[in-house]
Amino acid sequence: MSRSKVQWMSLMKKLNLILSNLIFIFLFSTSPTYSDEKDTIIGKAIVLDGDTIKIKGERIRFGGIDAPESYYKGKEQTCFEDGNNVFCGQISKEKLIEKIGNNTLNCKVQKNKDRYKRLIGECFLKEESLSIFMVRNGYAFDWPFYSKGKFAKDQKYAKIKKLGFWNMRFEYPWKWREKIRKNK
Fold first, then answer.
1. How far is C-alpha 105 from the geometric centre of its chain's CA atoms?
2. What is the pLDDT of residue 71?
3. Where are the domains of the chain?
4. Which 3 state secondary structure label does DSSP give 100?
5. Could you read off the pLDDT of 158-172 as tens digits, one per residue?
6. 3-state SS class at 142
7. CATH 2.40.50.90 for domain 40-183
């Protein structure tokens, strides 16, 4: 084989390799990805419950915590304080409304939605987690099934200090909903 033919074949191999790499780079640089912009929602919130808000038309459920229900299947969850029934779901909702005020929130959301088609995430007022705020002040609970104990220390603090619902008799919201479902 002549020297020029060997050089030609070597050049063709190099060009082939370069072309393959360029195609590979092009394909992966244009494929859709789940960017930081897509997993963050920023805006003013409408509070739907002590653990659920709506921003820009998207319902966001705070992951890993559970607040008493202000309205579930036609019922309001009650707690007992000083021998009186109080609507603890409404109290939880009002505490979240009061905390947020007219401020903008920053929510980090997961790709997947819950069974009610809500986004699941953790929302922040400035740098403060609203989930931690609600649990630490006793107006929501660490839901171990989903949180894997992420908010357990905050709940322990509220319980020891008898904050929020920890100075009342209550049922955990997930147990209360289960009773409602069984009675329907």
1. 13
2. 86
3. 1-31, 40-183
4. helix
5. 999 999 999 999 999
6. strand
7. yes
